[in-house]
Amino acid sequence: MSKTPTETRAAHIRQYTLFALPEGFALPEDGEAFESFAVFAAERFNRGGLVPIVRPEGEGCATIAFSHAGRKDRPVLAFDRDVAHRYSLFYPPLNCELMYVDEPHRLLYVSPYHPSYEGVLADILLSLCGPNRGLRRLPLDLNGLRTLPPHLLRPAGRGYPWNTVGLRGVTVRGVGRNPVTAVMTWEADAFDAFLCGECAREGTLLAASLRLWPAFSPRIHTVDLSNHPKTGGGRVRAAIDPAVLPVLGEFLRASGLLEEAPE
After folding, report:
1. Is residue 246 within 8 Å of residue 105, measured between CB atoms?
2. Which of the listed residues 5, 174, 183, 246 has the most CB atoms within 10 Å of its CB?
3. Which residues fall within 8 angstroms of residue 245, CB to CB, at 6 or more apart?
């Protein structure tokens, strides 16, 4: 009997901007390249105590993170019991810039601590593969969720690295003048009802919340998809880890939700 999966929202859920890796991109394998990479990152961030982390996460996938001190120290109230006196401690906060590289699916997930660092992270990554490269934001065609074939939702041995994909909620902007934006959520998987037209289908899908259950994983991951209102680039909000990283990339590619323009 198969074990029932658990659905949890891990503490390290973050929002990521979605980019397309350029053709031929590959992380270097020698340590010398990463040493110069760390120096370049420290210069671009202009931060003291920068600690770069580059960790392989399987074939063609990697985590790249930079932890560093913030701009302003944070005050914390303390109490001296001996003299019954209150005072303040000041310490530098620890910020973390985070990127996930998925080479097989040519995807990059960027999650800066502050939005102004998004371009800096892209420049730092491109320093690994040459200055003449470029990163493109990848918008998401969420209306494609309405035409997903059933075999993608429940592969049942068709070779996809996930067990099921479920629909948790959608945000829909209606049609006509002064359209109404509606948010619909469900306790159970609503894909069948949504695809059969039992729910409101007219309008543009602005956001969707999915339940993605990777194969050989005891946990169902909640993945929220949307597009940035200003840049139009795709955004993914999820707890990305080595188990879900390649599975998420495979689903985004196989589902046709990526609006990738030619290079």
Report:
1. yes
2. 246
3. 57, 58, 61, 100, 102
User: Residue 54's CB: how many other CB atoms inside 10 A?
Assistant: 18
Q: What is the mean pLDDT of residues 117-126?
A: 81
Lowest mean pLDDT among 30-34, 112-116, 142-146, 164-168: 30-34
The three-point CA angle 69-235-258 to 5° equals 140
Tokens of 226: 């949307």
Q: Are 61 and 250 in contact (CB under 8 A)?
A: no
Q: What is the pLDDT, as a whole number, of residue 165?
A: 94
DSSP 105-149: TTEEEEE-SSGGGHHHHHHHHHTTT-TT---EE--B-GGGGGG--
The H or E element that residue 156 is part of is none
Give the chain's mean pLDDT. 81
Q: How far apart are CA 19 and CA 260, in angstroms?
A: 10
Q: Which 3 state secondary structure label does DSSP give 39?
A: helix
Q: CA separation (Å) from 87 to 12, 70, 74, 92, 156?
A: 32, 22, 13, 17, 62
| Cα 157 to Cα 146, 152, 162, 164, 206, distances in angstroms | 23, 11, 9, 11, 31
**Residues 61 and 77 sit within 8 Å (Cβ to Cβ):** no
Retrieve residue 87's tokens.
């005072």
Residues 75 and 86: beta-carbon distance below 8 Å: no
Radius of gyration of the chain (CA): 21
Q: How many CB atoms lie under 10 A from the CB of residue 193?
A: 13
Quote the CA–CA distance of 149 and 220 in Å, as a whole number.
Answer: 21
The segment with the largest mean pLDDT, out of 176-180, 190-194, 227-231, is 227-231
The span from the CA of 133 to the CA of 159, in Å, is 33
